[in-house]
Amino acid sequence: MARKKPQGKKSKKAEVEEETPDLESVDQGENSDGSSQYSYDGSDGDGSQQEDEGSDVYVSDAYDDDDDFEDQGSSDEDEELMEKQHEDDGSGDEMNELEDLEQTYESAPRKWKSGKRSATGNPRKGTAESQLMHTDDLSSDDEDEDGTGNRIGRVPLHWYDDLEHIGYDGHGKKVAKSASKTEGDRVDQAIANADNQLTGKFVVHDALNDKSVELTQRQLEIIRRIQNGAYAHPEHDGNPDYIDYFSGVDPELSGLNDNRYLPKSKFQPSKWEKMQVDNLLRKLEQGYISMDYLTGKVRDMNDANKNKDPNAPFLLWTGAEEDELNMKKGPQHIAAPKVAPPGHAESYIPPNEYVPTEEELKEWEEMEPKDRPHGLLVPKKFPNLRSVGAYKHSVREAFERCLDLYLCPRVMKRRLNIDPESLVPKLPKASDLRPFPTAKCIEYKTPYDGDDAPVIRCVSCSPNGQFLASGASDGIVRLWEVETGRLLRSWDLSKVSKSVDPDCDEDDDSIKPVVSLEWNPNAAHHCMLAAVGKCAILLATGTEGVHDAAITEALLSEAKTGGNIKTEKAAKAVKWHSVKSESKPVSSFGLSSGPICALLTRNEVASLRWHTKGDYFVTVSPKAGAPSVLIHQLSKGNSQQPFSKAKGEAQTACFHPSKPFLFVATQQHVRVYHLVKQAMVKRLISGCRWISSLDVHPSGDHLIVGSLDRRMIWFDLDLSHTPFKTLKYHERALRSTKFHNRYPLMASASDDGAVHVFHSMVYSDLMRNPLIIPVKILRGHSIQKKLGVLNLSFHPTQPWLFTAGADGRIFLYQDI
């Protein structure tokens, strides 16, 4: 039966019209805070009827049929506000448009069903979930997954009125504006709005992104429910059934604490169970329980112990008494320290030296009791023991003793009885590491005129080990026979250096010392180099045999003609001068002997070294600047200047035995250069103040450096750029360090007059570190003017060592 309308009430159509929002054309609007507003596409005006005060609102049949909407009503203030808006917007011309909009709105599909949930949050049986509204809301970031939307935030949009873009997207690109809103566009908008009404579309304008957005059915449904004062989501139960929550209820049914994270203790083993297991293990080890008791075969240990003999012997001391003491609960009892026994000062008849005088008593009174010799006690003599009275500070000292006992912590410390020798690594015996030089066998006596013997600056042995060359401070290079100690030849290179140097005066009587001497390491090349003043002088030894004479003569042929320098830069740094010598060769097969050629540089030469093949050699002049390091080729008589800039003062240099590497040592660093690539490979940080010597291991993977601050540093080139080991055995500056070419031996000479010999085994296994063990200290040279052993050289084939000292003597140490 149809319900009759009460008089004075509004029709359903009017009620729906009042619930329908005001429709405006698509336009841009902004709030006071700069955010954009949405307006519905429709006609420019709206109209509604005013409702009388106290009138009831009727809901359409479409709303009555749906039980899911909750009519929550509105407050009186909202009704008064709506009435005021209707009075201000009274326009009856738009009723037809609203009716059309109402029809379109009512005809919109609404497919949802009631979906009340149970106490667990799951849908109840017999109800279906919402097909239209049961979807999760998407955040603003999820709606713009591609990042093409405007991301300017709450920036006022009128700032972009004069610009061609309206903001920036998530990628930092400009968001372009759409076509400008002119009067002609208004007509197109009105036509589009009419078409949208016919098709049932609802289009709004997104002012932030400057585009039109079509509202979905879900959005329309949310708007309609909000207008009606209902909950936006149809499945929300505003009046759920009451659940009687009480303690002990099943949390799955009640929903209490169902979304809490499990505590950390749930993921960790139980400490109480650990204590129980430890207690059972302790009883099992001590024999109080057995495995039968743990597995349940025996219910009581008393039944298992009935068959045991009570008179059976047992160990009285098991050796675990200390562990049992530590396992007891509570702090361990530690006896209080005993009071020191009384001394002579506490005697009633102290000696006279303990009795203070009046001046000492005045000094003690001004001092603190803890600073006095005997504390509060003042030694005093008594005629007999009966005359000794009560000690007036006994209560105070007893009180301080009690304070010390309970305030000062006491800890039981275990004293480890460890033999110190067991902590020292076990090294092999020196006798097991032989051979190495042990005793002085031969002395080479240098002839001289005057009172003081010349200082022997350098020594070098021939590749076959038959001859020895020495350079002294008198500018003479002497050739010795190793086995007999006989002096074979002497060449005065100081005169040769003066004759070549144009800056040297003829009346100059100064003597240029031989500071460096190196024999050619190739056994077929019988020649040597000597550094004297500004010259590096090439000498023919004249010791070649029948097969080596022609090879040596061919090698020295280019040097005899004065060299052939090809580069202009090197020609400015060094000049080759041929020198004539009338010295007779030592060997009958020798073709020439004595100085052959002199290489004149800008500054004094401090060091020179041969390459392993015996054709190239390098000279070092520390004060020469950029041309301080020069590389020369003997077979072609050519010289090269590898560096255009000087990185510090070069002290010494040497070649790698098998690779095209050049090691250049400055005062504190060693730089490794690749001669083919013309680039620095590595810079070794020595940590020394002044590097004095340098030598490379025959394998080429290790390097030793000697310094004037008593250090010998070992570098592992494959390991690091920092020292592998630093040895400090000498008392004064190191002058020379050398490796043996055949034996695992290494030696260092110092100004303290001693030579230290080391066993230095380098393994082919890269996982094993080199074995460095000092095996012998050789002494024999005396210190002259704070100078000791200045140079050393190993015999090429025997474990022998040649040493040269400032005392003018040369020694040969052999393995005896």
UniProtKB/TrEMBL annotation:
Residues 160-437 form the BOP1 N-terminal domain. It comes from Cylindrotheca closterium. Residues 32-48 have a biased composition (Low complexity). GO terms for cellular component: nucleoplasm; PeBoW complex; preribosome, large subunit precursor. One of its GO terms (biological process) is maturation of LSU-rRNA from tricistronic rRNA transcript (SSU-rRNA, 5.8S rRNA, LSU-rRNA). Residues 16-27, 62-81, 90-103, 138-147 have a biased composition (Acidic residues). Required for maturation of ribosomal RNAs and formation of the large ribosomal subunit. Belongs to the WD repeat BOP1/ERB1 family. It is found in: Nucleus, Nucleolus; Nucleus, Nucleoplasm. This is Ribosome biogenesis protein BOP1 homolog. It comes from the Eukaryota. Residues 1-153 are annotated as: Disordered. Keywords: Nucleus, Repeat, Ribosome biogenesis, rRNA processing, WD repeat. Its main location: nucleus. InterPro entries: BOP1/Erb1 (IPR028598), BOP1_N_dom (IPR012953), WD40/YVTN_repeat-like_dom_sf (IPR015943), WD40_repeat_CS (IPR019775), WD40_repeat_dom_sf (IPR036322), WD40_rpt (IPR001680). Coiled coil: none annotated. GO terms for molecular function: ribonucleoprotein complex binding.
